[in-house]
Specification:
about 270 residues; alpha+beta; Hypothetical protein af1432; 12 helices; about 60% helix; globular
């Protein structure tokens, strides 16, 4: 299936950030037919059938890009993720688990919205098993560890279940950070009748930019720029709830504001 310029662009940006096993993994995933078809059909169900926002390949790749950005900022700050803290793996292994999880975390939308994170984990299990055997061909224990961690990242990305690893906390936040106006553009264009849930689309449409940066007082700063105050709904009902459920919450500064007006600080 032909990929859009937007999708190939985000793929290029992801690849530029990676090396070693994460780079090898990303190249495999971007060309894997099963994953590509799941990503595309998840978007068909989300937008066409359910009148929801983007949950397809562009969204999943944006979450992957956000995840890699978060992890690198934290790593440069000297932060140790759970695999390294537990003595079960390296920072590279954590990158593999988070990257893989982010790139397939919403494939459960191909079944439906309800419990889609659990359905994503169910569908992902065989995919993880198949591809991690190629990434860690002589390390069966590592395959098991990284698969289990990736499944935690996937099943925990909605903040509906308790997560325990820092890696799962990354995917939660990275997912919440993909709320810029382009994500809601298609459903708004194809539906002009008011419906339940429109507030999510219109609040998302006011989000101009989400900046993931090094913090001043804490390792990570998330700053949201918006064109209208309706965007605060997206901050408070989506992003802040995900940060609140994340294991990384103590390490995050969060601010948001309408362009030209005072910035509101949620975490500092």
């Amino acid at each position: 299936m032909t990929k859009s310029p937007k999708e190939t662009g985000i793929e290029k940006r992801i690849l530029e950030k990676l090396h070693g096993k994460p780079l090898e993994l990303a190249k495999m995933i971007f060309t894997d037919p099963e994953i590509v078809h799941f990503q595309n059909y998840a978007n068909t169900v989300s937008i066409t059938r359910l009148n929801y926002n983007d949950h397809g390949p562009v969204h999943m790749k944006k979450v992957a890009y956000n995840s890699m950005k978060i992890m690198k900022i934290m790593h440069e700050h000297g932060f140790k993720f759970s695999l390294e803290k537990d003595g079960a793996g390296t920072f590279e292994d954590s990158m593999v688990a988070v990257l893989f999880a982010a790139l397939i975390h919403d494939i459960g939308m191909s079944i439906g919205r309800e419990n889609h994170e659990r359905n994503s984990a169910m569908l992902a299990n065989s995919i993880l098993t198949r591809i991690l055997a190629k990434i860690y061909p002589d390390e069966f224990e590592k395959q098991i560890i990284v698969r289990a961690l990736a499944l935690e990242c996937i099943s925990g990305h909605m903040g509906t279940v308790k997560i325990h690893s820092y890696e799962a906390g990354v995917v939660l936040i990275a997912d919440g950070c993909d709320m810029e106006k382009g994500r809601s553009r298609i459903p708004i264009m194809i539906n002009d009748e008011p419906k339940v849930g429109d507030i999510h689309q219109y609040s998302s449409a006011s989000i101009e930019k989400v900046n993931i940066l090094k913090g001043e007082n804490k390792p990570l700063l998330i700053n949201v720029e918006m064109s209208a105050s309706v965007g605060f709904f997206q901050i408070e009902e989506v992003l802040f709830k995900k940060i609140n459920a994340s294991t990384l919450k103590p390490f995050i500064e969060l601010s948001a504001g309408v362009t030209g007006k005072e910035t509101r600080k949620y975490l500092h």
